[in-house]
Write a structure and sequence with these properties.
alpha+beta, single chain, 2 helices
Length: 100
């Protein structure tokens, strides 16, 4: 009976993680920006505080390697500058990390 409960629990957790959208709260500083004509990506300094979701954790290393989308303002400039303090929630939409 215990084996059956363990198998069911494992199956439920694997199934729910398949549709899980990784997310994390963070407080940090923008280390660099990558701007294109349609987007702006930021990376964080290594001393940033990151708390991944216990249910759907975010791959934290992607924040420092790939960066995350921070968007452009109405003047087509990045919403933040290198060196700015920044905080919020970052989610993985399946193709990129986005500041919510």
């Amino acid at each position: 009976m215990m084996k059956l409960i363990a198998i069911i629990t494992l199956a439920i957790s694997l199934n729910s993680n398949a549709s899980c959208i990784g997310e994390a709260q963070f407080i940090g500083q923008v280390s660099k920006l990558q701007k294109t004509t349609t987007s702006c990506k930021a990376t964080l300094t290594l001393n940033s505080f990151i708390q991944s979701s216990a249910v759907c954790p975010l791959n934290d290393s992607r924040l420092f390697v790939e960066g995350f989308e921070i968007g452009l303002n109405s003047e087509k400039e990045c919403n933040f500058n290198a060196g700015d303090d920044i905080s919020g929630v970052i989610v993985d939409n399946g193709t990129q990390l986005i500041l919510e």
